[in-house]
Amino acid sequence: MDLRRSSILLLIIALLSPRTLSMRYELKSSTTKCIGEDIHENSMSVGKYFIVNPNEDHPLPASHKIIVKVMPPQGKNLHEADNVEAGQFSFTAYENGSYVACITAVDYKPETTLTIDFDWKTGVHSKEWTNVAKKSQVVMMEYQVKTLMDTVNSIHEEMYYLREREEEMQELNRSTNSKMAWLSFGSLVVCLSVAGLQFWHLKTFFEKKKLI
Predict the structure, then answer these.
(1) Does residue 50 sit in helix, strand or coil?
(2) pLDDT for residue 203
(3) Label partner for 5 (CA 20 to 30 A): which of 45, 70, 114, 182?
(4) Mean pLDDT of the chain
(5) Which residues form the GOLD domain (predicted)?
(6) Is-above-0.85 flag for pTM?
(7) Domain endpoint, select from 95, 122, 149
(8) What is the full DSSP assignment across 133-165?
(9) What is the bridge-based pairing of β-strands 44-51 and 86-92?
(10) CB 100 within 8 A of CB 77
């Protein structure tokens, strides 16, 4: 019981903490960097990316282009963009699994280095209610209630997912125990058969040698 309560508490803490991938990294020409995120079914996900301009007073040079692909665990790509400087994507996960975003710097000679700013939010945090919430007290309360409702729904979905995983693990344990029992029985039969054959062989040998 204490273990279950601890698991629920950890789940609530995990859901209330930001599930956000926000980073800035360098990418050389014709190289690719992929970033993965484990997303549950029916969870909303949004992301945005752009090339950091090394000289803000001038437009980006022709060498600063990227190719972006967002891929689900299986099936068609959720987002594709070729030779762009910036973009964004959004989707609702249709299955549990690892969703991957890959960014490739276009091939360019001489080789150049791009700085990529990438931001990926999943679940409650992807809705960004703060962008629409106003300063009035009533609207702020409404915003907080919506956020709490989203958090509760996420917790419910997460608990349902964990329950399904627990049932799958129990079924796997039962199946494994059954297979191990049959394997043990088979090993015992083989051992007894080998012992019987050895006994028969020795008996035949000693009889031929007239030792018994």
Answers:
(1) strand
(2) 79
(3) 45
(4) 80
(5) 32-145
(6) no
(7) 122
(8) --SSHHHHHHHHHHHHHHHHHHHHHHHHHHHHH
(9) antiparallel
(10) no
